[in-house]
Amino acid sequence: MTFRLSTLPLITTALALLSLGLNSQKANAHNFPLETTYSTEVTLTELANNFFRADLEGSSSDAPYGLTDFKVRNSYAKLNPDIGEFVFDPDPTKLDSGDLNVEDLPKATLTLSGNGSDKLFGELSGSTTIDFEKGVGSGSSILKIVGGEGRFNGATGILNVSESDIVNPDGSIEPQFTTSGSFQVAKTIPEPRNTKTILGMGIIGAGLLLHQHRKTFSRN
């Protein structure tokens, strides 16, 4: 096919409008920093020798985006009593559970939420070393964001978490988790209805230009 020089503006216009419509469908990732400290309490339930289920609940007074509440259900921890180290993971099959059958145990759920509809869901894994004699502990972990609700629907990301612990005289442990890093939420701009409008206008405009071009060409 040979294009006359006079048809080039028409082709360029059509391609530009088509490109604009297609590019508008590309997802933009919105970045949300999350740096705060959650003060929590942990409940340890020994399921087997030195193998525990851990449930945590706490809050932050200054968490951004209203994500003030911290809750973990059914996390799992393996204790090395020689050094006081707990290794924890949301998946019990990744830990040494001894003779305990863990195949049917549920994976852990972690939720950051507040009074509104915005929520984050995640998975926390890492280790903590407790000095029971001194009544303190510390550790580090990774919080993997795997979803959300409200503004944070489809959220993903990795947060670094540092932990400091207070061991009470009764043996209960109060961890503090300080998060650093950010998570992302994909957004599409503009909305699909706007994209259809742009493409529709482009098709109509290209059609009118083509019609005018054919009339001019037939006269010549």
Order of helices and strands: HEEEEEEEEEEH
Roughly how much helix do the residues carry, as a percent range? 10-25%
Q: What distance lies between the first and last C-alpha atoms, to the nearest angstrom?
A: 20 Å
Computed CA radius of gyration, to the nearest angstrom: 28 Å
Query: Beta-strand percentage?
Result: over 45%
How can the largest sheet be summarized?
Answer: 10 strands, antiparallel
Would you tell me the structural class of the helices and strands?
alpha+beta
* Low-confidence residue ranges: 1-5
Q: pLDDT average, as an integer?
A: 84
The number of helical elements comes to 2
* Overall spatial form: globular
- Say how many strands there are: 10
Structure description:
The chain contains 2 helices and 10 strands, in the order H-E-E-E-E-E-E-E-E-E-E-H. It has helices spanning 8-23, 192-219; strands spanning 27-33, 36-48, 51-59, 69-80, 85-89, 109-113, 119-131, 136-149, 156-167, 173-188. Strands 1, 2, 3, 4, 5, 6, 7, 8, 9 and 10 form a 10-stranded antiparallel β-sheet that branches. A hairpin with a 5-residue loop joins strand 6 (109-113) and strand 7 (119-131). Helix 1 runs antiparallel to helix 2.
